[in-house]
């Protein structure tokens, strides 16, 4: 794509939110006003794609690298400043640049060639290990040595708002009997975040951890739906398959890493110390507040079932990317790498219903007599997340999906 076309597309894409008409002017003095609680402040400026035949995906822009990303962000912030007349005083140009959110249909922000899901929350891995193997063997021997992951299915990654059909498959609820086939009875959510890859690497040439941040474009919310009963029967010896590949939902707006850097926190202390190719001293963990709500059919309002935070992650995104490519695996612009379920140390921060219900042994209260252990048809699940600044937020919008019944056989 020609550079001029990229700039034109970016100007249209990045200023498309209704909230872009209301961006924060407090510290950056933008001429566009925004509420203090808006996810999409002047400090954020996320990237996204909406319906219009002339709008590209973001892959070409992702491939340009961090220098171009910084230049684009700086130029957009300049255009939005209160003392910059280019857009402020040009009604025709503003009419071309701004698109009301109510008229825009959001799409996946990139063509996702490959999708990898990691398993990088120690609290989550420990909880699941205790359920299935006991406290003595909660973590597998490799878990503290490398970022465990598996390759998911890119074709079933969908944008927020896409209905999720209850999957069918083989299950073995009674170990003394043969497996059965039917709709999953233990359909679950997984509170995750994911990042899009910017520039790729050549086959056979690893990305060193010192350069990993240059390949991380930005982050989205993710719900990696899971059919626990299908997964528990199929996963030995090769890992998840039909229990995971039926649907993965992401939020439509990609928050650039530069917008998140004010919220960076020290990395989790890792013991034992990782091998040299995984070591980095610079902080790359982020204070992102995360929430999960469920609204069942007939419920007047949603109930929050989880309050967690991205800072609980054990392995960082830089470590995930360095490990992914250390064997020479090539990644490409638009590839999606996910965190795995994000759980914290307290029960309210558990990022899956498997943990919240402790494998179905206790109920999750939704209020007014509504309870769950796993998802029912008609349940609407919404993930939200944001960083909290002084008088502003850098947020991710929402990641929403509603469960529809399995197809009749």
Structural write-up:
The chain is of the alpha+beta class and 409 residues long. The protein is 19% helix and 24% strand. The protein is built from ten helices and 23 strands. Strands 3, 4, 5, 10, 11, 13, 14 and 19 form an eight-stranded mixed β-sheet that branches. The protein has a five-stranded mixed β-sheet with strand order 6-23-22-17-18, with no helix packed on it. A two-stranded antiparallel sheet has the order 1-2. The longest helix has 15 residues, at 66-80.
Q: Which term fits the overall shape?
A: globular
Q: Kindly state the number of beta strands.
A: 23
Task: Provide the residue-averaged pLDDT.
Answer: 92
Rounded radius of gyration (Å):
22 Å
Task: Tell me the β content.
Answer: 15-25%
How helical, in percent, are the residues? Answer: 10-25%
Structural class category:
alpha+beta
Low-confidence stretches: 1-9, 11-28
Largest sheet: 8 strands, mixed
State the helix count. 10
Measured distance between first and last alpha carbons: 46 Å
């Amino acid at each position: 794509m020609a550079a001029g076309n990229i700039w034109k597309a970016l100007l249209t894409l990045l200023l498309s939110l209704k909230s872009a008409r209301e961006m924060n002017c407090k510290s950056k003095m933008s001429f566009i006003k925004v509420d203090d609680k808006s996810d999409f402040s002047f400090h954020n400026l996320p990237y996204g794609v909406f319906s219009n035949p002339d709008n590209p995906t973001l892959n070409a822009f992702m491939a340009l690298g961090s220098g171009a990303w910084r230049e684009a962000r700086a130029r957009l912030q300049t255009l939005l400043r209160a003392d910059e007349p280019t857009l402020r005083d040009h009604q025709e140009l503003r009419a071309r640049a701004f698109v009301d959110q109510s008229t825009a249909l959001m799409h996946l922000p990139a063509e996702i060639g490959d999708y990898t899901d990691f398993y990088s929350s120690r609290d989550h891995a420990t909880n699941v290990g205790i359920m299935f193997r006991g406290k003595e063997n909660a973590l597998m021997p490799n878990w503290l040595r490398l970022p465990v992951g598996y390759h998911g299915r890119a074709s079933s990654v969908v944008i927020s708002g896409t209905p999720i059909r209850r999957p069918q498959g083989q299950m073995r609820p009674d170990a003394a009997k043969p497996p059965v086939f039917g709709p999953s009875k233990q359909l679950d959510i997984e509170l995750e975040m994911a990042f899009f890859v910017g520039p790729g690497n050549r086959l056979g040439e690893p990305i060193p951890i010192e350069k990993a941040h240059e390949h991380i474009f930005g982050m989205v919310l993710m719900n990696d739906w899971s059919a626990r009963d299908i997964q528990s029967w199929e996963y030995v010896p090769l890992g998840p398959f039909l229990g995971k590949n039926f649907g993965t939902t992401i939020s439509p707006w990609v928050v650039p890493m530069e917008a998140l850097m004010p919220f960076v926190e020290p990395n989790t202390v890792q013991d034992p110390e990782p091998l040299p190719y995984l070591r980095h001293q610079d902080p790359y963990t982020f204070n992102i507040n995360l929430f999960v709500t469920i609204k069942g059919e007939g419920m007047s309002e949603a109930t929050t079932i989880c309050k967690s935070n991205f800072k609980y992650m054990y392995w960082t995104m830089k470590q995930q990317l360095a490990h992914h490519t250390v064997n020479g695996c090539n990644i490409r612009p638009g590839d999606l790498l996910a965190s795995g379920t994000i759980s914290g140390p307290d029960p309210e921060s558990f990022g899956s219903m498997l943990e919240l219900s402790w494998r179905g042994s206790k109920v999750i209260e939704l209020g007014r007599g509504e309870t769950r252990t796993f998802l029912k048809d008609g349940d609407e699940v919404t993930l939200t997340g944001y960083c909290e600044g002084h008088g502003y937020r850098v947020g991710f919008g929402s990641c929403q999906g509603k469960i529809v019944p399995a197809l009749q056989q």
